[in-house]
Write a structure and sequence with these properties.
By secondary structure, the chain is α/β, with parallel strands linked by helices. The protein has helices spanning 4-7, 18-27, 42-46, 113-119, 129-138, 156-165, 178-192, 228-234, 248-261, 329-332, 334-337, 360-365, 367-377, and strands at residues 56-60, 66-70, 76-79, 82-85, 96-99, 105-109, 146-150, 170-175, 199-203, 214-219, 235-245, 268-270, 277-280, 283-286, 296-301. The chain has 3 domains: 1-36, no CATH class; 46-111, Vcp-like ATPase, Chain A, domain 2, CATH 3.10.330; 116-301, Rossmann fold. The chain is built from 13 helices and 15 strands. A hairpin with a 5-residue loop joins strand 5 and strand 6. The radius of gyration is 35 Å and the shape is globular. Keywords: Methyltransferase, S-adenosyl-L-methionine, Transferase, tRNA processing.
Length: 387
């Protein structure tokens, strides 16, 4: 129930004037009910409440193995540990445990997006959840955003982008191969329960598109540097370009192309390593296996038209840009050439060998004979030799 204090949050009673109290009570009469929370719709409605026909359910056994089933009345899910009847799940809430005919318990939950991506049919390699999460975060994909995507693959990244932009946003995806586009379309519709209202999927080359007024551009393709003119024309000023590449050579070429193009600010490149941890009482340690390198991410902001970014001040490493000649110490000084100053370091000299002393190599060559002579003088024993 509303109160006087709730209409003026953050204000102490002493600081509130009578006129402010009267206006607040006129707008929110005492005893008026708070606005009702609207009912869930779309994906939220399908992911809440008890299990119903057509729901995807993930069954996890005691060893952590996961199985996904689509619920249908009268059907059964069969494993080598017995069968689980779908009717035991229909109408039940998430988080229940059901047992197979072989008495094996299974935890029943709706699969998360990460679970769906790793188990869905694939045409092309998928963007792993750890990279998709970083793309959504570092490319700043917000609700209602207009996003242009190149290289839809199997639709894994598109699912994350659509979830981020929501039904009021827009995701325009381009895919060169029609077979990949078909797989991606089926996966997206399977996850969202039908065509997503904010998605437009085209079979073709992004370089030939005429999209404009886009807030973000996400590139998951072999040569993102080839479509930078198209991406720059599509982005609004201040928009974000995000490229996902697999190799260091692609990373280098993409960053250099962004710098040379002139319409983008300094690019930022990084990768993400994901390592699980083993937790069992006092046995707390990293898991032996991890999801290491999957790809690099490069982000860059779109500049306003006609604006040149200030040059980045950095001290490049020698040979970073292909220089073959390095300045001499006389020309740039000992510090710049990387050589120590001659008057700042005392160079030790070898001590002179005493007259008549044998060189080290001569002593090493005569060592076995010396050892044998010492052994003979001790009684003729056999000396130990070092391997």
């Amino acid at each position: 129930m509303a109160t006087r204090d709730s209409h003026l949050p953050g204000r102490t009673p002493e600081s509130v004037t009578p006129d402010e109290i009267d206006r607040a009570l006129d707008e929110h009469p005492e005893g008026a009910a708070e606005p009702a929370i609207p009912p869930a719709t779309g994906e939220a409605a399908r992911r809440r409440g008890p299990f119903t026909k057509g729901d995807r359910v993930q069954l996890t056994d005691p060893k952590g193995r996961k199985h996904t089933v689509v619920l249908e009345p009268g059907k059964q899910f069969h494993t080598h540990r017995g069968a689980v009847a779908h009717d035991e799940l229909l109408g039940q809430p998430e988080g229940i445990v059901v047992s197979s005919t072989g008495k094996t318990p299974y935890l029943a939950l709706r699969p998360l997006l990460a679970d769906f991506v790793l188990a869905m049919p694939r045409g092309a390699a998928v963007v792993y959840p750890k990279d998709a999460a970083m793309i959504v975060g570092y490319a700043d994909i917000f609700p209602g955003a207009r996003v242009l995507e190149a290289g839809v693959g199997s639709g894994a990244l598109a699912c994350s982008l659509l979830r981020a932009v929501g039904e009021r946003g827009l995701l325009v995806s381009y895919e060169r191969r029609d077979d990949f586009a078909a797989v991606a379309q089926r996966n997206i519709e399977t996850f969202f329960g039908g065509p997503h209202p904010a998605h437009r999927l085209y079979v073709g080359d992004l370089a030939e598109s005429t999209e404009t007024d886009m807030d973000r551009v996400v590139l998951d393709m072999l040569a993102p540097w080839e479509v930078l003119p198209t991406a720059a024309a599509a982005l609004v000023a201040g928009g974000v370009l995000c490229a996902y590449v697999a190799t260091a050579t692609q990373l280098s070429r993409t960053c250099e192309a962004l710098r040379e193009h002139g319409a983008f600010a300094e690019p930022h490149a990084f990768e993400t390593m994901l390592r699980d941890w083993h937790l069992d009482g006092l046995a707390v340690r990293p898991e032996h296996r991890m999801v290491g390198h999957t790809g690099f991410l490069v982000t860059a902001r779109r500049l306003a038209d006609g604006v040149t970014a200030p040059p980045r001040r950095r001290r490049p490493a020698k040979g970073a840009h292909g220089e073959t000649d390095t300045p001499s110490a006389d020309a740039v000084g000992p510090e710049a050439s990387g050589q120590p100053a001659t008057d700042a370091v005392d160079t030790p000299t070898a001590a002179p060998r005493p007259a008549g002393a044998e060189p080290l190599d001569t002593l090493a060559a005569s060592a076995p004979a010396v050892i044998q002579a010492a052994a003979d003088s001790d009684g003729g024993g056999t000396p130990a030799t070092a391997e």
